[in-house]
């Protein structure tokens, strides 16, 4: 399908609009949102329109003038410094569910090469890129647009390259697209080590032994999600990513300097401005469950933007998926005064429930007792 077919006037679109057909046409093009961008669309196609009630709610809202916590990891080598950092992690994870980290040990050039590699993949010859396009979630490496395309109320202005190590931590380098292969291999090594450190700090922040969450293998089952947000001609009508929480234990996000990420805090949207060399960390649904609500997995989203592209790379730590492993509220955090709030689960069941519906309906409440 020629994506230029999306170029129609508002009147024509309203008259001829068949959502199911438009979704299929977009999907069948395998060109993603960047394909629309390359075709020079001046109007956002209707499949991307946010619902009227959502837009009305947005019009009456305002952003809170507060800042997401920024935590410096430089001093975690000493006992006093580590205790201070663990306490900052505890407060941020309890009150925000989000924080940024600096001096985390990943060199700036490694971060920049990863961003460049993702951009190179998404901006390569479309015919080459199409060979990676699929909706088959069993594929370890796949390119696509809008995983919840057919379930959501509106499509998002974003394309994604997904590199999955859910089943096995071993990934043949030849499976990774050549455009970002070297950068991905190097970045994954560093971000995996950082994940181990963060789970240690999170364990200490919960009052547990430093190796508790790593012993539970919360850092296993990594997935790298490489997002590309093209410039949008009418950013007020759509979103880069709809409101959602993450169906994982922990997310470490690398973002470029364009901005657009927002987190929900006290029922208001707060910007998460990029910090040069910094990384965003957020608590996932699964960590909220096993911490028995001590830590919070909160809603976040990404705005569309007239400028672009925006590039981000999320490393999701999913835990053990295969063979099935039972997780639940940590017994050391349970007492008569603090009984279990959530039921036990296996990661595959949680993921299946998450991906069976629109992302904006996500969250751990379905697993409450």
Automatic annotation (TrEMBL):
It comes from the Eukaryota. This is Uncharacterized protein.
